[in-house]
Amino acid sequence: MNTIQRIVVLAKQVPDTRQVGKDAMTAEGTVNRAALPAIFNPEDLHALELALTLKERCAGASVYLLTMGPQRAADIIREAMYRGADGGYLLSGREFAGSDTLATSYALACALRKIGADVIVAGRQAIDGDTAQVGPQVAEKLGLPQVTYAEEVVNIEQGYLTIRRRIAEGIEVVKAPFPLVITVNGSAPACRPRHAKRLMYYKSARCRSELHAAPASFAAQRVAAKPELEIIEWTAANIQPDAAQLGLQGSPTKVKRIENVVFQAKEAKCLTAADEELEGLIQELMAAHTIG
Amino acid sequence: MANFFLDNKDLQLQLEHPLMPHIIALRERNFAERDAYNHAPQDVEDAMNSYRLVMELAGEVCGETLAAHAESVDHEGPHHVGDHVEYAAGTVANLHAFHAAGLDGMSLPRKYDGLNFPLVTFVMVNEMIARADAGFQNVWGLQDCAETLNEFGSEEQKERFLKRTAEGATWSMALTEPDAGSDLGAVMLKATWNEERGQWLLNGVKRFITNGDGDLSLVLARTEEGTSDARGLSMFVYDKAWGGVKVRRIENKLGIKGSPTCELVFSDAPAELVGDRRMGLIKYVMSLMNAARLGISAQSVGTCEAALREAEKYALERRQFGKPIASFMAVSELLAQMKAKTQGARALLYETARFVEIYKQLAAVAKERALESEERQEMKFYNRLADGFTPLVKLFSSEYANQTAYDAIQVHGGSGFMKDYPCERIYRDARIMSIYEGTSQLQVVAAINGVTKGIFLEQIERYAAEAYAPALSNEVGMLQHMTEQVRQMVARVEQLDKEVAGFKEFHARRLVESIGHILMGYLLLREATQHPEEYLASARIFCRMGAGKVAEAYTVVTTSDEEDVALYRRA
Prior knowledge:
The structure holds 2 protein chains of 2 kinds. Chain A is an alpha/beta fold. Chain A is 29% helix and 23% strand. Chain A has a single domain, classed as Rossmann fold (3-Layer(aba) Sandwich), CATH 3.40.50.620. Chain A contains 8 helices and 12 strands. A 10-stranded mixed beta sheet of chain A has the order 9-8-7-10-6-1-4-5-12-11, sandwiched between helices. In chain A, a hairpin with a 2-residue loop joins strand 7 (146-157) and strand 8. The longest helix of chain B has 40 residues, at 329-368. The termini of chain B are far apart. Chain B is built from 19 helices and 11 strands. Chain B has helices at residues 9-15, 20-27, 44-76, 89-100, 119-132, 134-141, 144-152, 155-166, 280-317, 329-368, 373-412, 414-417, 423-430, 440-452, 455-464, 473-499, 503-530, 532-559, 563-568; strands at 79-81, 84-86, 171-174, 190-194, 199-210, 216-222, 233-239, 245-250, 261-274, 319-320, 323-324. By secondary structure, chain B is an alpha+beta fold. In chain B, the strands form 3 sheets. In chain B, strands 3, 4, 5, 6, 7, 8 and 9 form a 7-stranded mixed beta sheet that branches. In chain B, strands 1-2 form a two-stranded antiparallel ribbon. Chain B has a two-stranded antiparallel sheet with strand order 10-11. Chain B folds into 4 domains: 1-169, Butyryl-Coa Dehydrogenase, subunit A, domain 1; 171-278, Butyryl-CoA Dehydrogenase, subunit A, domain 2; 279-434, Up-down Bundle (Butyryl-CoA Dehydrogenase, subunit A, domain 3); 440-568, Four Helix Bundle (Hemerythrin (Met), subunit A), CATH 1.20.120.470.
């Protein structure tokens, strides 16, 4: 297969951990999702931009967002549509609840087999878990090559993508055959803004459970008139999974203990503005791998 | 995430004005395009919802992208490369961001790839842009040239040039020449019909042309040989791709440094005639100038907002004698007045935009079908108000931009005089606003007839007849008293003008300004009645400020006699 037709972006709706206030954690030590605004995981937006740029270079290609989450995760599918995605899939249902990265990547892989994708793009990691495991696990489950820490697709030719990736020592350019999975680094170009015309149209996009909740709404009327406004919503039954590998049951991760780390600087150092002192500080921080 | 729409309640409330459903019905011709375009609104509520979402989008681009580039654009400015302009890097990024957000061609019809948004929202975006970076408003806001082409160009011209606007083409309006500034009738740039090439060729020089190297330009040129006044001028559209225009220099300015102000040399530059010959200045440029004046008013109100916010922020942060300087009455009075002026000017701005919108939309409908007699009446009604209010809002908003920028530096004290805070840039940027698109003195000339012919007083009576909150009865009384003073001033000036030529001209500014204080006073009372939490203080402060100004004008006018004209005349 030499052409790219379908690009799927894996994205996650996450609590905005950058807005952490004093009620950000529950007494049990878990993230208090109610206290934090739900946002499009930042690196997934970089992934979306990479996908949209790729689409612009591949005539006839489309970009779809795939996410797993509760009904309100449809928000990030709409957000992607405002910015240029053609549509989206929401995996939702209690079967998926409690998934760790293994169960998540399993569910996503099942859905991706059904959707069929030439290129799968995901953000490097999500700001709530910071594992960076889901993208690579999806690639393994689908038996696809993966390119992680990507910044840009440099070239597209005859079944191969040439990709620049950001690694600890610098940058590396690699060539990989597609279908493949790309995980995108935060140093990749930022996502384009919403587009006014798309915003005015796709604001009425809804998934099935949203339509059920408000059958007489303006949005529901629009979806009835324009079927492409319906966000595809799948439950577990739609992706024919092995139930044992889903949700809590399929999640071997066990949280042993949660520790609240309170950073308290005990020591303070006073430096003068002299070059030698600054040089010394830089050396020290580099030795401690704080910088560099 | 800074968002210049979501953080501005006043702006949001302006969008929710009760005239909006009527404006939307006119704009959308009763939703005739609802099935033809995915992004066309289905009904009033859908349209309003889309306006809010798109204003929020514009507010984000302004608050994040434009604001982040404002300082570097001010430092870098445009470059003169070869015979053309290269924008500062930040300006290029700003244009890209606006285009990516699909905001270009906002007010143009959908068939030319526009959004068909009302003028009110276009003005709003211009205001938000100016709050972030006043100079970028000149570059982007000149899209209202496309609006003029939409009004007077041929179908074929619209098809070609309006679509380019939605694709991100920038515009300029090349009117001014070395010897034709306020007096545009003196324009000498020559347009000659070349039979061989079958096109018009332009030759001559234009000066002080904002964004002069824009992709597309409207050019005022003399087509009628042997003429020397306005009646020999026609309007042209010029596409930079056609060649023949060189940028001779980019002016080095005090402010709005990101906006390239060019001297242009036209050498056999091909151009297309827009509309009819001889109507260039008389009809088309007058319309263009009115739109541009509204644009500068939006720029001015955005500048007021920027100055106010900088001053408020500093006054809360800066501590002296153990407390924030905002808690000292001398500083706090300045801040309160800056806010009242900003809200007063904004109220006048959007009132004017609504008048212009209704009038222009009815005029556009009149080209599609004969208007009902009621509609004709309505068009005339709003046309009169639009013509009166436009110079008034340009006058007040631009003077307020300067006053608030001056006060913002005052609040900052010595720090404000340094290059370390944005208030010094805002101060420099504001200075041009009471000068270009007609100086304040010229706005007075344009508005004075509205005073003596009663257009403003009739509107004041309409405002006075509205119901206001009981808490504002004192202010209503103040405005009634001010109105009475204006009536007396007008009567005296009209009387003495018959005896001494120039008496009305001498007092024109005092009359026009007094009217403005009353109008803005009523508009703020109206808003304070609806939303006291947002406007009550400003409405009260504005009325007190206005009462003082009108009293001063009243004293000068009623003690002024026939000899004053000679006393003040210098040449």
